[in-house]
Amino acid sequence: MASTATIVRRKIEGGPEDRLWTFRDFSSLPTNAVAKTLSRLEDKGVVDRLRKGVYYRPRTTRFGPTKADPVLVATSILDRKDVDWKPSGLALWNKLGLTTQVPAVSTVAVDRRIEIKNLKGMVRLLRVSSLRDITNEERAALDALRTLRFVPDTTPADAIRRLVDLCRTNVLSFARMTKAARREPPRVRALLGMIGTLLGEDDLTLSRLRASLNTTTVFKLGLADAFPEAHGWGIR
User: Fold this and answer.
1) Is this prediction's pTM over 0.90?
2) Nearest-10 Cα torsion for 31, 35, 41, 42
């Protein structure tokens, strides 16, 4: 029977380059023996130790060995800590057609407050309330509604029009976003209500959204001129 060291080495050397390895990849083996083997493989230059329990096998190119993707490093750490997460921010907004810009810093939405050392300036952690039962794209759409005026390379009105189109073509589920929005800021629920009105959603769904809002609150988002429906949701 092969030793732990042999199993670990064969799995890493037989696996793809440019990927992360953590103790979870060897969960059926003794942790201490796995740790010692990974340490020896680091000494031999097979893997790079990025932090405790996280190793990277680089790929050699004509420009030298590759570096680990900071997002993969961050999400592997989040997985180890049992933190729920979804990709968000500019990368997803670009994918959805909300902006043409690409991110210099990647954004990951997380369900609790947490810090990851040594990755500042490369990965931004955005704390949100709702991550489950929605897609990555729907989470990113809710995040766009949170910061509508600051989505780059577009206007709030154009961003709303794009989100309406995405709902109409079933890229986004209005129903799932509405359910997730129960724990979102009021302005998000108001914007979803306006989007639902534009989509012609049923009165029951819209009334539930409306009941979750303070009727005296005004959201100054610069949308009233573009959408007459905005007034009914306290949006100006």
Assistant:
1) no
2) 150
What is the spatial distance between Cα 11 and Cα 5, in angstroms, rounded to a whole number?
A: 10
CB 21 within 8 A of CB 57: yes
Q: Which domains does the chain have, with CATH numbers?
A: 4-67 (1.10.10.10), 71-233 (no CATH)
Helices 186-199 and 136-146: angle between axes, nearest 10 degrees: 110
Q: What is the rounded distance in angstroms from the CA atom of residue 152 to the CA atom of residue 59?
A: 34
Q: Are 125 and 110 in contact (CB under 8 A)?
A: yes
| 138: its two tokens | 């729907």
The CA distance from 198 to 223, in Å, is 13
Distances (CA, A) of 105 to 100, 108, 152, 230: 15, 10, 14, 33
> Over the Cα atoms of the chain, what is R_g?
23
Asked if the model's pLDDT at residue 76 lies above 90, the reply is no
Strand 106-110 to 123-127 pairing: parallel
Hey, what are 185's tokens?
């800021």
Which token pair is 74?
């961050």
Backbone angles phi, psi at 217, to 5 degrees: -80, 135
The residue assigned the tokens 């810009």 is 101
Q: Which of 210, 216, 142, 151 is nearest to 174 (CA)?
A: 142
pLDDT, one tens digit per residue, over 156-175 is 999 999 999 999 999 999 99
